[in-house]
Amino acid sequence: MLKKIPTQSLRVGMFVEKFCGSWLQHPFWSKTVLIEDVRTLNTILQSSVTEVVIDVSKGLDVEAAPLLNNSGAAEAPSEVEVAVAEVEAASAAASLSGDKVHKASMADEVKRAQQIFRKGKQAVKDMFKDVRLGKAVETEGLQQLVNEINLSLSRNPQALISVARIKSKDEYTYLHSVAVAALMVGMARLCDMTEEQVLEAGMAGLLHDMGKAVMPEAVLNKPGKLTDEEFAIMRSHPAEGHKLLLEWAGVPEAVLDVCLHHHEKIDGTGYPERLAGENISLLARMGAICDVYDAITSNRPYKAGWDPAESLSRMASWQGHFDPVLFKLFVRMLGIYPVGSLVRLESERLGVVVEQSCNSLLTPKISVFYSVRLKQALPVTLIDLADEHESDRIIGRESPEDWPFKQLDQLWLPT
């Protein structure tokens, strides 16, 4: 039997079936949790969640069990009422798609995106921990994360994808999965996939690297070049992840496929099965692009991330690696000069791309901050190259490694 109670009535031994409120407020990545100890109880009590639904058939009941409604009166919702409420909530979330979602500015959505990534990082970290401990993993909490990603991209298609690149080397293993999920959702939306297919693409991105949960941590986080033996171990992660996901209930076939085949290459030189061309599924071809882009733009234990514009340029030169049509779509999504790219203007000034233009990949908004001619910093100025009164233009990208600038991302991330 399900009962809705205030969090202050929780105690050790209860089974939480559902946290009421926004998923971003929840203290755990899963929607269900058995309160096994005081630490778990305190985690819930210290969160911003005010009400939960408990299942008394799986854990302890409350004494007298008074349940509160909005007016403060005692009320005990039936299982049917709780189920109806869940369906209504899911329908409301599903309706927040396309034009029905209120659009958000880049600055506003970046702040929400940072919240999503903080919660997503903890979700993946806990999921990896559960896998290493041999615990069963339920995917419903992960579906809520993918829903949040999709809604963010509905409000602003650039913010979350831009924030996805910002991660320290210590965060890479966990945030990489969230970043690839965001990139996959973005590509699926551009491909005009159905809402169900978009969410499936996001789930595929989120779970594509599950095999890394069972890789030796000394190899996974090695700060130097891998030996041939270590590289062979790492190459086993797609098959190991696929094996893990087969044991989970309700994982779609497309998600399993991306996990197994996201390291295949269009020319047949990838692994583990050396598939080529259209023998690689559409989602797996998308996954290959998203996985590599996030990997090479991120700070890793053994190298610093590349500039986003430089990364796209290098990827474009890797003949036979990616589906060329999908790669062009990927560039269209990010822009020729993605947010965070260092560029040189015709005026001999340097700036960082802060937002893409709706009309042209060549006319983003830029934070200008340095004069090459004067060799000195300038007051930071935002210019919009799409403005008909703006005569300046980009003449090329610059490698941050060639300049002594630190923390360029501060020029586009809101404070």
TrEMBL record:
Superkingdom per UniProt: Bacteria
All copies of domain HD-GYP, residue ranges: 151-346
InterPro entries linked to this entry: DUF3391 (IPR021812), HD/PDEase_dom (IPR003607), HD_GYP_dom (IPR037522), HDIG_dom (IPR006675)
UniProt GO MF annotations: phosphoric diester hydrolase activity
Classification via SUPFAM superfamilies: HD-domain/PDEase-like
Protein name: Phosphodiesterase
Source taxonomy: Bacteria, Pseudomonadati, Pseudomonadota, Gammaproteobacteria, Pseudomonadales
